[in-house]
Write a structure and sequence with these properties.
Blueprint lengths: L7 H16 L3 H6 L8 H6 L9 H11 L1 H10 L8 H7 L11 H12 L7 E4 L5 E2 L3 E8 L4 E7 L3 H23 L6 H16 L1 H14 L6 E2 L12 E5 L4 E2 L10 H22 L1 E3 L7 E3 L5 E3 L5 E3 L2 H16 L2 H11 L7 H12 L12 H14 L6 H20 L5 H16 L2 H34 L6 H36 L7 E2 L2 E2 H28 L1
Parallel strand pairs: 5-10
Antiparallel strand pairs: 1-3, 2-3, 3-4, 4-6, 7-9, 8-11, 9-10, 12-13
Helix pairs in contact: 1-8, 4-5, 8-9, 11-16, 11-17, 12-13, 12-17, 13-14, 14-15, 18-19, 19-20
């Protein structure tokens, strides 16, 4: 039995959900999820419990009818072809987050509540007519007292409470789905946790203001890419006041009347801006569709609505770059390793994975870049990941969706455009940077620090583990003996790693100092020659040590 909280709003919402399911003939789901008790008696009797599962379109209609939180969940799922079938993703993308704007009296009350004073004290002009309206907020144009034109994003009154209630409801539904459908890759609860994180960010406009700041800073050196500046003195959790960008949405631009050269410039500008966000900044717009990009004068473009944004850490960027380059080069081993490293998985049969990669990606071999489609690559990676139960990180899947959205936009305006051609230099640049002396130096310092901590803590951790075993019952003596051997193995490994680190550091340092001043030996710096000699000697010591250890074991 479910442990439903019997607060009236949630139970009423659960009843509404059951009735919507009944309306769309989801009798089998009502039965499997034990929701029939929330229906009137006459509806319980007419439910067809044997009817086959409904089509994606019907599920989309249920989400649409249930309102804001369910629509948002559907939109999030549309970005996750690694979790749900592609036909459901395609259908859920039809969910539109567009609603009728609220009366200005309600918006005015909300703005004054957030500011803590009358609206006229902050704004000399406030347009009562919304320029955009969605389930979470609506946007109005206004002017501050100092004359700056601004866009004011106002959160709908009571929307947080509505979302909290619906998330509680969705948690109960997720529990039922996990109980009855036995998920193998990811639980419904995990999907809901991800959804709740996105929702929390989208409902806190202070977070979006920080996203705008970050993106604005990253493009501060160019006038061709514009990000609106937030005005923090007027921003709250429910109110976002930012610079008004006067431009046309790309979705409203008539490209048929534009020259090929101009179309090429605009497409390249948008695509390369997003590629910079991903490969250089590690922070990217999560939904750069044509309605969220404005065309300005002199072919400049502006990105708006940072309600959803993604982050990708430096090591993940390099793994992503390696994946792309491996696909383009036909490197099956590289693709397999990159996919595993980019995911959260265990017990992957790497040889079986390689077979599927070779079969799926062979169509890209000996093919010119201009003939490749990023969307097809992404679908292949997702399909293989699902087949081998490799769960990709949420931001990685979001990034894939961003890339596919960009490619679709680019091809619709400039059919000869190839996004992979622009993407490859960014990826190769990242890989090349990884081989630079400065990157190697940072990696050596970081590895040394981690290894020092590992070696320092290891004896204590092993001692506590062995002590715990000793204090147990006598029948685990054999395990105790094995753990002592394990302790010896780990200490040997730690010492070996330390020696390898010292050799690597000496080699790198000697290479960097090869042309420095001072005494020279055969044209090379004496310090450099000494370092190389010492590294060679230690390498010999390491080889001898490994041979001796191997002879002991075998």
């Amino acid at each position: 039995m479910l442990h439903l909280k019997r607060d009236i709003p949630e139970v009423e919402r659960l009843t509404e959900f059951a009735e919507v399911l009944a309306k769309h003939e989801f009798g089998w789901l009502i039965h499997r999820m034990s929701l029939s008790r929330f229906l009137p008696v006459h509806k319980r009797l007419t439910i067809d419990k044997e009817k086959l599962p409904s089509q994606p379109e019907e599920i989309r209609m249920v989400l649409d009818e249930m309102g804001a939180a369910f629509v948002k969940l559907g939109q999030l799922l549309s970005l996750r072809p690694d979790l749900i079938p592609q036909e459901y993703c395609d259908e859920f993308r039809k969910l539109q987050d567009e609603v009728s704007p609220l009366p200005f009296s309600e918006i005015k009350e909300k703005v004054e509540s957030e500011l803590g004073h009358p609206i006229k004290e902050a704004f000399s002009y406030f347009n009562e007519r919304a320029i955009a309206s969605a389930s979470v907020a609506q946007v109005h144009r206004a002017r501050l007292k100092d004359g700056r034109d601004v866009a004011v994003k106002v959160q709908r009154p009571g929307i947080e409470r509505t979302f909290r209630t619906d998330i509680l409801l969705l948690r109960h539904i997720a529990e039922l789905i996990d109980r009855h459908f036995n998920p193998k890759i990811i639980r419904a609860k995990d999907i809901l946790d991800e959804f709740e994180r996105y929702t929390a960010n989208e409902l806190d406009f202070l977070i979006e203001a920080r996203y705008l700041d970050r993106a604005h800073h990253n493009f501060s050196s160019t006038s061709k890419i514009v990000i609106p500046t937030p005005y923090h003195d007027y921003c709250t959790r429910g109110l976002l006041v930012m610079e008004f960008i006067d431009g046309r949405k790309l979705s409203e631009v008539d490209f048929s009347k534009m020259s090929r050269r101009k179309k090429r410039i605009i497409v390249s500008r948008v695509v390369n801006a997003v590629l910079k966000m991903v490969f250089e900044d590690g922070f990217f717009h999560g939904d750069p569709h044509e309605g969220n990009v404005l065309l300005l004068e002199r072919n400049a473009v502006a990105f708006i609505d940072f309600g959803i944004a993604g982050s990708i850490m430096p090591d993940q960027r390099i793994k992503l770059a390696n994946l792309l380059i491996s696909i383009l080069n036909g490197d099956v081993d590289g693709v397999a390793i990159s996919m595993i490293k980019l995911g959260m998985s265990r017990d992957v049969d790497i040889e079986s994975l390689k077979v599927d990669i070779r079969s799926s990606l062979s169509k890209y071999y000996d093919v010119e870049i201009k003939e490749m489609k990023l969307s097809e690559m992404f679908k292949d990676v997702i399909r293989i990941s699902k087949l081998h139960r490799i769960r990709l990180l949420p931001d990685m899947v979001l990034l894939g969706k961003v890339a596919v959205t960009l490619e679709g936009f680019a091809l619709s305006i400039y059919p000869d455009y190839n996004i992979i051609k622009d993407m490859r230099p960014f990826a190769e640049g990242l890989v090349a940077e990884r081989m630079s002396p400065s990157y190697i130096k940072r990696s050596v310092i970081k590895t040394g620090s981690e290894l020092k901590e590992f070696i320092t803590e290891l004896p204590k951790e092993v001692y506590e583990l062995v002590s715990g075993i000793e204090s147990g019952e006598e029948h685990i003596d054999r395990l105790h003996s094995d753990m002592i051997w394990l302790r010896t193995d780990i200490i040997f490994l730690a010492k070996t790693l330390a020696l390898v680190l010292i050799i690597s550091s000496l080699t790198i340092a000697s290479a960097l100092l090869v042309n420095t001043g001072g005494k020279f030996i055969y044209g090379y710096s004496a310090i450099s020659v000494t370092g190389f000699s010492l590294a060679a000697l230690l390498s010999l010591v390491l080889i001898v040590t490994l041979i001796k250890e191997n002879s002991k074991r075998y």
